[in-house]
Design goal:
Elements (H helix, E strand, L loop, with lengths): L16 E5 L4 H12 L3 E6 L2 H14 L4 E5 L5 H15 L4 E4 L15 H28 L3 E6 L12 H20 L5 E8 L5 H7 L2 H8 L11 H12 L10 E4 L3 H4 L5
Parallel strand pairs: 1-2, 1-4, 2-3, 4-5, 5-6, 6-7
Helix pairs in contact: 1-2, 1-8, 3-4, 4-5, 6-7
InterPro entries: NAD(P)-bd_dom_sf, Sc_DH/Rdtase_CS, SDR_fam
Keywords: Oxidoreductase
Family: Belongs to the short-chain dehydrogenases/reductases (SDR) family.
Length: 267
């Protein structure tokens, strides 16, 4: 696989606070570090206290920003309400929210997917983002605006055999994003989604069984010839959260190395 050096674009989020849900590993962790380098204060939620603590050590070592972590199960409505209350109290206002919590599933035809597996995917990938929006939108309306980014997937804009329920959950994220963006378009709140293709994270390797299996499956259909690095996805999140994206809302931005435009039928 071709290695890539990701050129970091400079943003300045000094004085702003970002809430990242699903921020301890993969895309979320890379985004938290990118926001920290840009000067934002961070409230990060996710699973894995050890991951949250190690992320905090990296951020605090930079000495630029304030950081707090809370372990949260995004399926739990009471826990999500408490998370947002604590974040609002800790920093006074949340300017940016990144709803990134998600999970994959092992590839299987729909008849082999259990009802329990169905509800777990929907609860994490879709309900979790709904619960985030439910608390973030009123807060931002009250404080005069903000930016929200939700994580969908390339499989949120196209179907893929053996991942039907995962695709359904990610299509739902885009439906939420589009609709809620319209609800708040005149309230100085922008809501967008990212739709990443293959990113070398635990989620990808879990879906295909191993890093090598993931490479063998997806590399032949990525025109750029490589799997993306989480830091590349983080750059898109920062852009959509920044004033540089001031006229962009209700969009699902595909970031996949050209796979979608090359033809989904190749997959």
């Amino acid at each position: 696989m071709t290695e890539v050096q990701v050129r970091q674009v400079s943003y300045d989020f000094t004085g702003r606070t970002a809430l990242l849900i699903g921020g301890t590993t993969g895309i979320g962790r890379a985004t938290a570090l990118a926001f920290a380098r840009a000067g934002a204060n961070l409230f990060v939620a996710g699973l894995g206290t050890a991951h949250g603590e190690s992320l905090g050590q990296e951020i605090k070592a930079a000495g630029k920003t304030e950081y707090e972590f809370l372990e949260v199960d995004v399926r739990n409505a009471d826990a999500m309400a408490d998370l947002h209350a604590r974040a609002f109290e800790r920093f006074g206002r949340i300017d940016i929210a990144f709803n990134n919590a998600g999970m994959s599933s092992r590839a299987a035809p729909v008849q082999d997917v259990s009802e329990a597996d169905f509800y777990q995917l929907i609860d994490v990938n879709l309900k979790g983002i709904f619960l985030g929006l439910k608390h973030q939108v009123p807060h931002m309306i009250e404080r005069g605006g903000g930016a929200i980014v939700n994580t969908s997937s390339l499989f949120g804009v196209m179907g893929y055999a053996t991942t039907a329920v995962y695709c359904a959950s990610k299509w739902g994220v885009i439906g939420l994003t589009n609709s809620v963006a319209l609800e708040v378009a005149r309230k100085n709140i922008r809501i967008n989604a990212i739709a990443p293709g293959s990113v070398m994270t635990p989620l990808l390797t879990d879906m295909f069984g191993s890093p090598q299996s993931a490479r063998d499956t997806v590399l032949p259909v990525i025109p750029m010839g490589r799997i993306s690095d989480p830091s590349e996805i983080a750059q898109l999140v920062l852009f959509l959260s920044s004033d540089a994206a001031s006229f962009i809302t209700g969009q699902a931005v595909i970031i996949d190395g050209g796979g979608f435009v090359a033809g989904a039928d190749q997959l």
